[in-house]
Amino acid sequence: MPRYAYVMQAAKGAPFTTSSADAPSLSELSARLFHLNKPVVKILDQQRKNDDRKRGIPLRLKLSFLEQLEASCYLGMDLRTALGICLENTSRRSSAGRQLAGVIGALRDKVTRGVSFARAVGHFPLIFDEVSTGLIAAGEEGGTFNESLTNVRKIWARNEDLQHRLLMMLIYPAIVFAAAIGVVWLLMTRVVPQFVAVLSQMNVDLPIPTKILITISRFWTDYPWIILVCSIGVMLLILKSPALIRWTPVLHGMALRMPLFGQLALLLVRANFTRVFAQLKNAHAKTTQSLMLCRDLSWNYEYRSAVARTLVKVQRGEPLSRALEEDVDIFGDMVVHGLAFMEVSGSGSEGLNRLTNLLERQLDGYINAIRQVLDPLLIVFLGVVVGGIVFATFLPAIEILQRI
């Protein structure tokens, strides 16, 4: 029997602890821990983790497959025919495309043998994660299968758009930083040494900023490889910082408190939480089942532990809005108060959809605001660095001219 490790947090603010247990499968272990009312943050499936690292399929390809499947199903085709069309239209020029084609073929074979689509996709976590599988299962049970495909497609499309926009936000600072390094390199190794040679012949007392600049210039000239390696390291750190934070649970809380980007992460998880919860409730899923799937929407342990604590409270009989109050810093006043109003008014998933649209507009506005603030800040940074070098370089000449 395989052994699984799972992460828990006894109370809010407590350290994350890892335990292990034997179970026939991950789903059975999850059900067992749920019935024991344990606030499980994440169950670590090492085999799935290794498979995802070795054979990851880009989200762009998965989204294209799902859009074709959704369109075929809405045209009234049966699943076997729809999957066959998707298989024919899948490009096999890349290794990821060939792998996706193999998965689609396996899905078609399982559906042909009478296996439900939700159960079939559960064997292929490379394409369908727990949330997508849960949405499809709820749609099949509630008779809203086509709508469930649409909901999964919307989530994937939203994630793909956000990944692209966030990548662009990280690439721009890296380009500006590279440009700053190039300009500073040119000034330090070509311009400053010439001024130093001229000033040394004049035998004048140099100001402190000029002395510091000369020292830095000599270091850049004598040890260029150190500067180059450090510059490349900083640029890689900027680009790889999201992945570094993701795989370091200690940094998850700090990530939510970072200036600008912490609020962005909170707005993202709130919008995803309300959208997926509304879609699951529209498919007549239980609140506890919906919360278990919503827990897997984010890699952030702080968010996952908040959902886990909420799940335990709901299992004990508390209303959802009251269960969320302890973690209002994660879910936000808008979500907590909105759910409380919906429980009183009985507006249901329609009210959640409106709340989701409001949160997504707030998220889009915040992303645009970050872009508008970040671009001028980077330009100012580059101007301060270059301007400081120029000022320290010409300061002795200015003092000499004033004495004449």
Tell me about this structure:
The protein is mainly alpha-helical. It folds into three domains: 3-54; 59-128, no CATH class; 156-404, Up-down Bundle (Receptor-associated Protein). It is 75% helix and 5% strand. The protein contains 17 helices and three strands. It has helices spanning 26-35, 46-54, 59-74, 79-88, 95-112, 117-121, 130-142, 145-202, 208-222, 224-246, 252-256, 261-282, 287-294, 301-315, 320-324, 328-345, 349-403, and strands spanning 3-9, 16-22, 40-44. Strands 2-1-3 form a three-stranded antiparallel β-sheet. A hairpin with a 6-residue loop joins strand 1 (3-9) and strand 2. Helix 8 packs antiparallel against helix 10. The radius of gyration is 28 Å and the shape is elongated. The termini are far apart. Mean pLDDT is 83; it is low at 50-54.
Keywords:
single chain, about 400 residues, mainly alpha, Receptor-associated Protein, 3 domains, three-stranded antiparallel β-sheet, 17 helices, about 5% strand
Give a quick summary of the entry.
Strand 1 (3-9) and strand 2 (16-22) form a beta hairpin.
Write the layout of secondary structure elements.
Layout: E1 3-9, E2 16-22, H1 26-35, E3 40-44, H2 46-54, H3 59-74, H4 79-88, H5 95-112, H6 117-121, H7 130-142, H8 145-202, H9 208-222, H10 224-246, H11 252-256, H12 261-282, H13 287-294, H14 301-315, H15 320-324, H16 328-345, H17 349-403
Antiparallel strand pairs: 1-2, 1-3
